[in-house]
Structure formats: structure tokens, C-alpha cells
């Protein structure tokens, strides 16, 4: 049994004991907090100005999409379809033979529309091209890609919420995927991210297998992965599957409309899964609240609303009554502000991405990125949550924002790899100090 006494400035985020002078780590877990006299194998003194605390969790991300975006042509700064096509023409297909582009925003293009199959054919017809918009919910393919995916060639090539079709494309080459994972995990570690929740609605057992294989090859964060509510199979909530914890059953209302959203929720609950439901507007939120009122989650679990980006005050009252958790993304206010100002009324802007209203109702909240839609940068979420560009009444305190972002308060039994050291804006791990 190995033990380390860590002494210095320690922030626990436990409201009953928010700070500590020391902790004892035994065999890689927190064994004691604020111990005065104890024998350990070694002592680690934190440097002046350095703090030890729980690391951050990105509670809603899409890991494989994030890695795919890193392997794609970046179209985020493109201002017109002509510029987009020029960027693609100057790029080459990846090792799997497909040219991928990502992160374009049609409302920011001069033409105010998506590119089409015909547009992409002007770049190439001899190899497949697929583009993904900033939200990840819209893709555009050229004729070659349409043929390989089985998309009718008389279509415009614009695919909305068609993940099942897009999944027919060949996977990224494993070398490209692992290289992207290594770079991404390094970047996240430098930001203090120690855990993520993958919220992809097409996840199934094979997806969890892939995520676990990435963790074997690349040192990465702790991963919890939601599973599509229609793809639960023999998986069980809370179990470990190839090193990945099985999370909530994910429901996409736009997809579930064809499958009966109430039925998916009820079936997931009966299988022991709480549900996490994608909610981006008032009408969908209303439908979801009605469905959730008819089926209770398993004992000791919480159903979740993902995003809850636009909500009426009276709807938030019902969110509280149902005991729902909300996972939200403050950084959208920074990265999509122009779109919100253009498309939403002043009244709607005041209801946008609520935070203070959630906490006032004692609703459990966690912050996240929705990467690759916006960057996985906890300090950015915290900054925007405390200093919003619009709807200032929804701002919360820095302390509140940080509490909503940590992986969990420090407690006995917490693994030491979920703890980070902080000095200024620099994050580190305890393992790197030994």
C-alpha cells in the first residue's frame, strides 16, 4: 500500500468543508481529508500560489465527432460558398479516401444557405465529399458520396438528422483517429478536464467498444457514454463496458417523433435507464415535459434535459417539479451570439440559455461544451456563465459556475486521477509530480 500526504491550499467544493490543509492519498484514492497526524510513505508540498482541486467534467460532448472534426477541413471562418469550395479544392482526401469538411454555419455565409450536391460536384466527382455544419445535425454530400451512402441522386445532397445514413461511410483510418485522440486528450488535460460524458444519440455497444479502445491507446479522461434509447440492447445503466461507464439512454425528439418519444422513455425506464433528452426550443420542451410526466425514472436516478436552450419561466417550474437535471452550454452565447441576435426577438433572448433561473428553482445543473459544436474549454464556460453578452439577469457567480463544472466535490474514495493542480491558468496532475 502506497500513501502520500499532500499539503497546501486545497479546494474541495464540499459546502460543509470548502477548503482543506491536507489530504492523504492511499493506493490512488483520497483516504483522508484534513488529517493532522498520520504516517505516509511520502509528503508532497504544493507550491505557493498552487491549488489542488477536483478536475473539470465536460458533461455533454461527442468524442468521435470531435476527433472527426479534428481530421476535417475547418470551414468555421468561411464567408461564402465560393470560399468554401476554394478551401475544399485546395485540400486532399484522408487516408480512408473521403474528403471531410466541418463547422460551416449557413446563416453566416453570404448566400444564407447550405451548399448542395451540385456545389460539391464542382470540386470533385472522383472521390466522396461530406461536410458537417457547425451543429453536427446537417451534412452535405457530393454525388460520389451520395452513391456510396445510398442517397437518391436527385436529392440536393443535404442530409438533416441522417446519422444512420452517414454511418455507412467508412470510418476514419485508425491512425488518424488515434492521432486526433492523443492531441485532443493532451489539450483537454491542459485545461484540467478529467472526465467527459459522451452524449451521442447513435451510441451503441460497438461505439462504447471504440471509445474504450481509444482509452487503451491514448491516455484520456474518464468516459461515461450515453446510449441511444433505441439501441440499448443488453447494456445496463452504470455498468462498465470496455473501460467506459454506461450512461443515460439518449433520446433525440426529432428522431423519436417517428418512434414515439413517450414509448422510448417508458421502455428505457423499464430497462433501468434514466433518459437524457435533446431539447433546443420551447415547443420540443413542452412535448418532452408532457412525456416525462407520464413515466418516472428508476429509483435513485435523474432524467436529464440536454441544452434546454430556450424555455418559458413556467416550463422551468415544471422542470423543477419533475426533479429533472439540466446540462447546459453557456459558451453558445459567445460562439453563436450573432445568430441569436439575428433570429430571436428581444423577449426570446431573455429566455435564452437560462442559468440563474435554474438555480433559483433548485434545479440540478451541469455545464458542458457540446464539442465539437463549441470548444471543450471549462474556463470559457465559467466566464460566459458569469458575464453574459445578453440576458444578464441569468448570470451566476464564479463560485456557482465552478461548482457546476467540477467532476464532483472532493470526498474520501475519490480517485486521485480526478484531482488537478492549478497555478494561474496552468493545470497539472498529481501523477506528473511523482
Question: What does this molecule look like?
Answer:
The chain has helices at 63-70, 81-89, 117-121, 143-149, 163-166, 174-190, 205-217, 253-256, 261-270, 282-292, 313-321, 332-335, 337-343, 346-350, 356-360, 378-386, 398-403; strands spanning 3-11, 19-26, 29-33, 42-45, 51-54, 56-61, 73-74, 99-104, 129-133, 138-141, 158-160, 193-198, 222-228, 240-241, 244-251, 275-279, 304-307, 325-328, 365-367, 419-423, 426-429. It is an alpha/beta fold. The protein folds into 3 domains: 3-54 and 415-433, Urease, subunit C, domain 1; 57-63 and 173-403, Metal-dependent hydrolases (TIM Barrel), CATH 3.20.20.140; 73-166, Roll (Diaminopimelate Epimerase, Chain A, domain 1), CATH 3.10.310. The strands form 3 sheets. Strands 6, 12, 13, 14, 15, 16, 17, 18 and 19 form a 9-stranded mixed sheet that branches. Strands 1, 2, 3, 4, 5, 20 and 21 form a 7-stranded mixed sheet that branches. The radius of gyration is 23 Å and the shape is globular. It starts with a strand and ends in a 5-residue tail after the last strand.
In short:
With 434 residues, the protein is an alpha/beta fold. It has 17 helices and 21 strands.
